[in-house]
Every structure is written in structure tokens, then in C-alpha cells.
Amino acid sequence: MIANPVNSTFNVPEQYKSASSASYSFTDDGFWEQYIYRLVAHGTSSCTQGLTIYQHGTYTHGPDGSLLLVPFWQDGRIQILDQCGSDPISLINQTEHIRSWRIMDGPVLRLEGEYYTPVGNMTRVYDTPQMLPTKVLSSWR
Predict the structure, then answer these.
(1) Count helices and strands in the chain by DSSP H and E runs
(2) pTM for this one?
(3) 128 within some domain
(4) In a domain, 137, yes or no
(5) 5 — pLDDT class (breaks 50, 70, 90)
């Protein structure tokens, strides 16, 4: 998924539109980025609904081994998807507390948190994170 917080747009590549997905990236110097694409099935409707989320910001390690992800509030975006209606995009500023995390063989990342944290394991795709710049990008002040 490609997000652009400057002009408040999302572009979900066609090959990913049929399944929910999540991507988290972390740098060694305390920055993170999150993309979420979640579909919601409705058995009584032919309209696929879901949401897309983009956030990035800084993270810190807690004394209990947790991670606290604090977004740059100006850049967080959430889009509610409704094929039979409009697709509004709004600001989102959701600090996330990752209670536990671990890296397993693969390498595979497992996060356990709240809100939009994925419930499945995530496989590393790139050795170097492929992220937007690690600073506030939009002009919201």
C-alpha cells in the first residue's frame, strides 16, 4: 500500500485488494511506520467495506520490554472504504502500546498490542526499512 499524508491519498495495489494486510517498519534510531488495510465482510451486502490506515512517528522501549508507538499527529490518515458510498479520509492520532514483541526465525515479527495491531505474524520483506521520511510531512500545524 502506498500512502501520501501530504495530499491525503491511499493507493492499494490491485494484487492486495482482496485480503487484509498490515505492515510495520522500524528503524534502529527510534522511528516507525504503520500501514493497515483491513476488509470487513458483510454477508447481506454486495458492498465490500474496510479501512486503510497510515501512521508514522517515534517509538520508545518501556522498562517492561514493551514498545510505545507515538505518531506524528499531523500525518496520520484513516480512510473508511465503502464501495457503495464515499471513501472519506480523516486524521488519526492513535498511540499504540505493543505489550510484547519478538523476532523469530524467518525472520518473522510477532507484535501483541491493542487497537489495530495485527494478530498474525509478519515476515520481513526488506533488510532496510522502506519508509517515508522520518519527519512530519504534512502542513497541518
Answers:
(1) 0, 12
(2) 0.81
(3) no
(4) no
(5) confident
Contacts 24+ apart (CB under 8 A), 97-106: 97/66, 97/67, 97/68, 97/69, 98/66, 98/67, 98/68, 98/69, 99/66, 100/65, 100/66, 101/65, 101/66, 101/67
Residue ranges making up the domain that contains 93: 2-123
- Residue 51 pLDDT exceeds 70: yes
Q: What is the pLDDT of residues 97-133, one digit of tens each?
A: 888 888 877 677 777 766 656 666 777 777 787 788 8
- Tally the domains of the chain: 1
* Sole residue written with cell 484513516: 78
DSSP code per residue over 13-38? -GGGTTS-EEEEEE-TTSEEEEEEEE
Q: Is residue 130 part of a domain?
A: no
With respect to residue 35, please indicate whether it lies within any of the assigned structural domains.
yes
Cell of 128: 532496510
